[in-house]
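Structure (tokenized):
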């Protein structure tokens, strides 16, 4: 079984994965997955070293990872705009779902940009990242990172990979969303910040065939059937529904 949800923001929203708020999780196994659409936020704080140059344990990070490891299911996530990208890159690569992921803990794994994964028979293309609307209030390297927008090289690698599968996958996981959906939100729900990822994802939308798009980022739970898009925040929904 695969479930999809929106941002967890570390300790801020992660409790939606608790047994109380997600009772379905009690009946799952480690072969079942809950996938977070960016702004995972657990791997966020910079590494702090002691006087000997040894990294100190991040107690908050340890607590949150223990919480997730104790869930019956396995947690997967893509990156958002509020994730510590340089720190995420330090975790080991492992082979999973027919490609490479980063293993964060026993049952928490990071799905990489511009990769196609086969998760329980579903082909999934991942392209995370977004531009932070609040970066002027954040400190670079501490609470904001320039890598929040994937590099041109990474994006191009993704498009090249999609060509090898005939530009067709079952699902797309992104943090932001394509311009068509962005414009729909603007028209119906008020102005949102114009993110360059919207345009990149629109090119993706115009290029490939897929059943459905899932994203987070907007802190709203909105379905847009016209564009086969589900924006997620508090909801935890089965993949494909």
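Design, position by position:
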């Amino acid at each position: 079984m695969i479930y999809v949800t929106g941002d967890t923001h570390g300790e801020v929203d992660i409790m939606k994965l608790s047994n109380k708020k997600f009772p379905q999780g009690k009946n799952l196994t480690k072969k079942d997955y809950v996938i977070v659409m960016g702004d995972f936020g657990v791997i966020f704080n910079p590494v702090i070293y002691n006087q000997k140059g040894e990294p100190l344990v991040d107690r908050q990070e340890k607590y949150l990872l223990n919480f997730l490891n104790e869930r019956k299911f396995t947690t997967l996530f893509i990156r958002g705009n509020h994730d510590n990208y340089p720190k995420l890159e330090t975790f080991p690569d492992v082979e999973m779902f027919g490609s490479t992921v980063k293993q964060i803990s026993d049952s928490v794994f990071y799905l990489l940009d511009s990769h196609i994964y086969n998760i329980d028979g579903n082909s999934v293309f991942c392209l995370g990242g977004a531009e932070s609307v609040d970066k002027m209030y954040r400190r670079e390297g501490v609470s904001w990172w320039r890598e929040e927008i994937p590099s041109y090289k990474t994006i191009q690698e993704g498009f090249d990979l999609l060509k090898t599968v005939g530009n067709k996958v079952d699902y797309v996981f992104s943090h932001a969303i394509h311009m068509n959906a962005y414009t729909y939100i603007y028209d119906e729900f008020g102005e949102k910040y114009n993110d360059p990822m919207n345009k990149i994802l629109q090119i993706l939308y115009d290029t490939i065939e897929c059943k459905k798009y899932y994203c987070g980022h907007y802190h709203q739970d909105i379905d847009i059937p016209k564009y086969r898009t589900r924006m997620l925040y508090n909801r935890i929904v089965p993949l494909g529904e």
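Reviewer-requested clarification: The CA atoms of residues 5 and 19 lie 15 Å apart. The radius of gyration is 17 Å.
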